[in-house]
Design brief:
Blueprint: H1 2-15, E1 43-57, E2 63-66, E3 72-74, E4 79-91, E5 96-101, E6 113-117, E7 120-123
Antiparallel strand pairs: 1-4, 1-6, 2-3, 4-5, 6-7
Length: 126
């Protein structure tokens, strides 16, 4: 009987032990060089600014007056010159984007930090 009691006490003492505390291993710190963190997906840096000049005829040449001999007198063509700017932007995610605008913002130059929103360029504070 003593042996049986001793065995029961031994089994109970093995079951009633203090639980071990299992702590998860800390996650490795992210390497900022390997994975650049992009805060603004619409932001980038101006790489190049090109001025493009075009001429546009507003009215086609039409004969105005016929002479007796069959000569034709035409209106002088009214060609209209226009200028727009093509801005090459290197986005922070690596893509390159070309935005065409008729007005160039003051202070916009190569190296400026910008944000592209709905096809327009907005300056970003440094």
């Amino acid at each position: 009987m003593q042996r049986l009691l001793f065995l029961v006490l031994l089994l109970l003492s093995a079951c009633v032990s203090t639980p071990r505390r299992v702590e998860p291993e800390p996650a490795p710190a992210p390497n900022p060089v390997a994975q650049p963190q992009v805060k603004c997906i619409d932001c980038g840096v101006v790489q190049d600014i090109r001025t493009v000049a075009t001429t546009q005829n507003t009215a086609p040449k039409k004969p105005v007056l016929s002479g007796i001999v069959g000569g034709v007198v035409s209106k002088p063509s009214s060609a209209k010159a226009s200028t727009h700017y093509e801005i090459l932007i290197q986005m922070l995610n690596g893509k390159k984007v070309v935005v065409s605008q008729t007005i160039l913002s003051t202070g916009l130059r190569i190296g400026s930090k910008v944000r592209v929103s709905q096809g327009r360029i907005l300056a970003v504070a440094p």
